[in-house]
């Protein structure tokens, strides 16, 4: 992973509000201070980068969500950055393909730009201490509604954008979904 490319992607991102601006500043600080460590899954202090994707159905009315086995909530597909990933965008696309089998995706925003950023706490589990996920998020439109459920998730489904809030998601998902509701198309 090229640190300068990650820093440039974050620097170019237009934060939607003060909260996102704080997240971006912390992400740039982590990239600047930690060499390659911020992408390693075992980097717990304060945490590490993850990549995820908000994927709309072809008609842009529904969002695919997964029931996260460890956290027990409905979230967008995503996960840890791996050494084989060329960049954060490829990490997000790989996670979507692994978790729900969707590989034909068109970018919702220009030039595969970041759609959203979030930093959230992951509780301690087994040998892993509590830590933060510095999540960079992309937005796509799937070319098909046909998905396959992987072993990594308990359940997955297309959820109408108007019904996401009632499904049992967290605030970071609801915040990004509000952006989707406002996006043209």
How does this model look, in words?
This protein has 185 residues and is an alpha+beta fold. The protein has one domain (3-182): Nucleoside Triphosphate Pyrophosphohydrolase (Alpha-Beta Complex), CATH 3.90.79.10. The protein is 28% helix and 28% strand. It has four helices and eight strands, in the order ααββββαββββα. Strands 1, 4, 5, 6 and 7 form a five-stranded mixed β-sheet that branches. It has a three-stranded antiparallel β-sheet with strand order 3-2-8, with no helix packed on it. 36% of the residues are buried. The mean pLDDT is 90.
Tell me the name of the CATH homologous superfamily. Nucleoside Triphosphate Pyrophosphohydrolase
Enter the CATH topology name. Nucleoside Triphosphate Pyrophosphohydrolase
**Total count of domains:** 1
Overall 3D shape: globular
Specify the biggest β-sheet.
5 strands, mixed
The name of the CATH architecture is Alpha-Beta Complex
Using only C-alpha atoms, the radius of gyration works out to 15 Å
- How many distinct beta strands? 8
Q: What is the CATH first-level class name? A: Alpha Beta
What is the SS-derived class? alpha+beta
Which residues sit in consecutive blocks of at least 5 with pLDDT less than 50?
none
> In percent, how helical is the residue content?
25-40%
């Amino acid at each position: 992973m090229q640190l300068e490319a990650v820093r440039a992607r974050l620097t170019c991102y237009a934060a939607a509000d003060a909260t996102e601006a704080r997240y971006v500043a912390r992400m740039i600080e982590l990239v600047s201070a930690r060499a390659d460590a911020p992408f390693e899954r075992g980097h717990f202090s304060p945490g590490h980068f993850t990549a995820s994707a908000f994927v709309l159905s072809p008609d842009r009315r529904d969002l695919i969500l997964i029931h996260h086995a460890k956290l027990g909530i409905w979230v967008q597909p995503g996960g840890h950055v791996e050494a084989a990933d060329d960049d954060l965008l490829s990490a997000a696309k790989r996670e979507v393909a692994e978790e729900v089998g969707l590989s034909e995706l068109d970018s919702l925003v220009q030039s595969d730009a970041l759609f959203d950023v979030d930093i959230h706490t992951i509780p301690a589990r087994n040998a892993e201490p509590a830590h933060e996920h510095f999540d960079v998020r992309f937005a796509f439109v799937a070319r098909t509604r046909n998905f396959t459920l992987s072993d990594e998730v308990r359940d997955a489904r297309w959820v109408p954008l108007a019904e996401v809030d009632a499904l049992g998601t967290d605030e970071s998902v609801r915040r990004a979904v509000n952006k989707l509701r406002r996006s043209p198309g």
